[in-house]
Amino acid sequence: MSASLPVPPPARTMASRIRSIVSGSIGNLVEWYDWYVYSAFSLYFAPAFFPKGNLTAQLLNSAAVFAVGFLMRPLGGWLMGAYADRHGRKAALVVSVLLMCGGSLLIALTPGYEQIGVAAPVLLVLARLLQGLSVGGEYGTSATYLSEMADRQNRGFFSSFQYVTLLGGQLLALSVQLGLQQGLSEAQMYSWGWRVPFVIGAAAALVALYLRRHMDETDSFVTQEQNVQTQEPSKLELLLRYPKEILTVVGLTLGGTIVFYTFTTYAQKFLVNTAGFSKAQASWISFLTLGIALVLQPLFGALSDRVGRRPVLLFFGVGATLGTVPLMTLLGRADSQWAALSLLAVAMLIMSGYTSINAVVKAELFPTTIRALGVGLPYALTVAIFGGSAEYVALQAKQWGVETWFYWYVTGCAALSLLVYWRMPDTQKAGRMEG
Asked: How far is CA 254 from CA 39, 146, 169, 235, in A?
């Protein structure tokens, strides 16, 4: 009996593409909300989980746990990326959101240090490890899903919605924080108010789970699954056949991830701990800044569809290399909220040259059979080492009285990525994305 020929997937309409991208993006928003709630509320829950000390010392402890979560991201990128390449993008995204839900719920329910002693920070670390595993798999799989769902002419635009929803998750976290700050006293925020956003995150993850279970699988994966060889080597072995592409992902991520975490998650603490703004003022400035960044993502994504990916990356590389030191220096001396917002808006403009298109650039480097793992694993390794530690390095430099060293550290990493952008081909023209 002869084997049946592969059946090509039916032609996908623009409306069906948009529905799938919206469903995937909403799930992505919930994932990143859960991830960033930790950073947004660490100013309030750090005293609950760690022994009494000065603010910088407690923030160092919470930043260390934040970094620990990043250590699980490479493992998540490996396991979930391989799972997505073997069993489908949709299946991996469902598992990812379940892990994130469990981590948020654990943080919400864990008693403080005064109640259970050292078990409190231990459980906090465990919850963060679950979330790190989840978000490590989320990035590569969602980047692959959105890139494969988009059509060739608008791939940069549609793929930019990964960071639209990523930033939207941060904005949602800050919105919840601002609402709680208005409705609760400072004492209530420190006592129990910080637990509310984690409960919201766990509940929202269940909504994301429902949406992801009803998403379509991508045509690229369906076609590849029909053509898969029975004796296919392991996914990791397949990935190692693309060393140049792996190093390119590492190089183009290095500067981008440090700049991103410096001017988004760390900026809120910098405004309080260095510039001298109140927590409420820092929250509002961060909220408006992220709103600006969110609007910029699709604009830069659409621009890359017209002029290519490489010119947009070069804009980021040059801007971050030349602009980080003056921006951070002036931000530390800002004497008004509008001055701080203006400086961070410039940083968001520069940063968007990376954030808007980095997902599609990485996806275009790899073939379908190894795309989710190829995007996710080297990215997660780079983010774990450099992005996850950025906040800790910044706070440690401040603790040692050499805060400006951190500015130059960010500049050096951005310069290394600039070299990669200068030498790499434009993946829009030379990439491996089908369709």
From this structure: 21, 22, 22, 24
Burial of 402 (0-12, 13-18, 19+ CB in 10 A): exposed
Q: Which residues of 4-13 are buried (b: 16+ CB within 10 A; e: fewer)?
A: eeeeeeeeee
The DSSP letter of residue 424 is: S
Closest CA to 239 of 381, 357, 28: 381
Q: How is residue 192 written in tokens?
A: 């129990």
- Using the Cα atoms of residue 127, residue 69, residue 88 and residue 219 in order, give the sign of their dihedral: positive
Question: Which residue in this structure is represented by tokens 């961060």?
Answer: 286
CA distance 137 to 101: 14
Residue 309 parent element (H or E):
helix 309-332
Structure tokens at 255: 């500067």
Please report how the helices 243-263 and 388-399 are oriented relative to each other, as an axis angle in degrees rounded to 10. 50
Do residues 397 and 200 touch, judged by C-beta distance below 8 A? no
- Alpha-carbon span 144 to 364, nearest angstrom: 9
Cβ distance 376 to 335 under 8 Å?
no
Q: Tell me which DSSP letter residue 282 carries.
A: H
Count of other CB atoms within 10 angstroms of residue 429: 10
> pLDDT digit string (tens) for 98-143?
888 888 899 999 998 788 887 888 888 888 888 888 888 888 888 8
pLDDT band at 55 (very low <50, low <70, confident <90, very high): low
On whether the CB atoms of residues 383 and 70 are closer than 8 A, the answer is yes
* Coil, helix or strand at residue 53: coil
Contacts of 10 (CB under 8 A, 6+ apart): none
For residue 15, give every residue at least 6 positions away whose Cβ sits within 8 Å of its Cβ, in sequence order, or none.
none
Residue showing tokens 């993946």 = 427
Q: What span, in angstroms and rounded, lies between the C-alpha atoms of 256 and 405?
A: 18
| Angle formed at CA 312 by CA 348 and CA 382, multiple of 5 degrees | 70
